[in-house]
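Reminder to self: tokens first, then the designed residues, so the page reads top to bottom the way the pipeline ran.
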């Protein structure tokens, strides 16, 4: 039997070498892909450690705001997620999830052994692979540190403070100051009991409304979300203002604008740029394409939202007008105003949307369910919203604002 000749043996060696090289190259690609996937997962976990996980809820409210929720500012570095920067009384970490902590330094490295790049901004980057991998922590620092809460305070008889009592009410909110401590901000309502709390970080904070002559304190906890512009209504247990400042009388004629403060009966649209649908459409000033809800197909989908409680409830309502601000995205799209009252849903005319945002509205002089004049109880319980559809699902219709104007007279 003849063995392999030199030429045959050389060919075999070359073929085996090629196969080994191809196998090694494939193995290298697989390893690199696995490292990239794991690095991206770790960076997402670090981002959630900084600003919290919006999927973690308690009693229907977001419960996790990470480092920012406790401290009131972004960490200067990733080490601050593992151990307190020093003297930070509000620090409640470590914020690193168990899957990231093998030791005190490993969580700061990508799967190639290179340190992540983070210095207090809104992005974390990895360069260990030879190219840059970026994880976006937030759109802007201000989304998590400079938010607003609007609200109203009344007494047990639904009376407002008026000029007589507005200086007798202190509204205090205690928030983390961004440097490891806390600060308490004090505000006063206006004559109608309306107040605005500004420059608030995300998180759950104690809010105290104090009737100072009696030192009567109403304590509530408010949850501030990113890009928050919410509304809350409160009442003292006693009739401090009745017959004095507010008197409960009508201040009309006039109008009152109410905006979304929570989810309603329907939630069939998709949020873009915010954690919850109603937060995309509650803006006082339209931010248009920054935050909006959008349609999900060629059939109508609807959102309805709970609104802030009205304040001037002694007047006679003359009309309720619901507004939506919408536009198409390339393809033909449509919108309808939605009003929900007495567990029934009513819609306005179908509007053909243009390329730019435009305000559309529908007015109801009487309650469409009862056929009679509106009552303030019906206004308090109603929901407002929008229906959207597009002729092409990949080009959804958009709505950036929803609000209602209640007109009233003496």
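Designed residues (410 positions):
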């Amino acid at each position: 039997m003849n063995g392999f000749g030199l030429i045959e043996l050389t060919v075999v060696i070359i073929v085996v070498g090629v196969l080994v090289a191809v196998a090694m190259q494939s193995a290298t690609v697989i390893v690199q892909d696995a490292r990239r996937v794991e690095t991206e997962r770790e960076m997402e976990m670090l981002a959630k450690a900084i600003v919290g996980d919006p999927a973690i809820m308690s009693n229907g409210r977001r419960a996790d705001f990470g480092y920012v929720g406790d401290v009131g500012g972004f960490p200067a570095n990733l080490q601050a997620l593992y151990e307190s920067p020093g003297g930070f009384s509000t620090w409640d970490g470590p914020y690193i999830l168990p899957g990231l902590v093998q030791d005190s330094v490993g969580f700061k490295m990508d799967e190639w052994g290179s340190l992540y790049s983070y210095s207090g901004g809104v992005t974390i980057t990895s360069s260990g692979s030879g190219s840059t991998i970026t994880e976006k922590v937030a759109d802007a620092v201000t989304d998590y540190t400079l938010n607003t809460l609007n609200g109203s305070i009344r007494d047990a008889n639904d009376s407002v403070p008026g000029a007589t009592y507005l200086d007798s009410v202190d509204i205090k909110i205690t928030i983390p100051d961004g440097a490891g401590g806390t600060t308490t901000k004090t505000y006063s309502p206006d004559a109608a009991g309306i107040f605005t709390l500004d420059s608030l970080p995300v998180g759950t904070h104690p809010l105290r409304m104090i009737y100072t002559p009696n030192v009567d304190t109403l304590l509530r906890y408010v949850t501030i979300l990113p890009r928050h512009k919410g509304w809350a209504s409160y009442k003292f247990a006693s009739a401090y203002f009745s017959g004095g400042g507010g008197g409960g009388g009508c201040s009309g004629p006039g109008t009152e604008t109410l905006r979304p403060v929570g989810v309603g009966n329907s939630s069939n649209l998709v949020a873009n740029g915010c954690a919850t649908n109603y937060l995309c459409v509650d803006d006082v000033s339209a931010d248009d394409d920054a935050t909006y809800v959008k349609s999900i197909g060629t059939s109508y989908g609807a959102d309805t939202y709970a609104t802030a409680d009205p304040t001037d409830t002694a007047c006679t309502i003359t009309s309720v007008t619901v507004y939506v601000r919408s536009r198409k995205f390339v393809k033909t799209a449509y919108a309808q105003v939605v009003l929900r009252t007495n567990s029934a849903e009513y819609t306005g005319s179908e509007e053909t949307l243009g390329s730019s945002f435009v305000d559309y509205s529908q007015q109801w002089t009487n309650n469409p369910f009862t056929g009679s004049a509106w009552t303030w109880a019906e206004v308090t319980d109603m929901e407002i919203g929008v229906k959207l559809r597009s002729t092409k699902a990949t080009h959804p219709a958009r709505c950036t604002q929803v609000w209602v104007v209640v007109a009233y007279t003496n």
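The mean pLDDT is 90.
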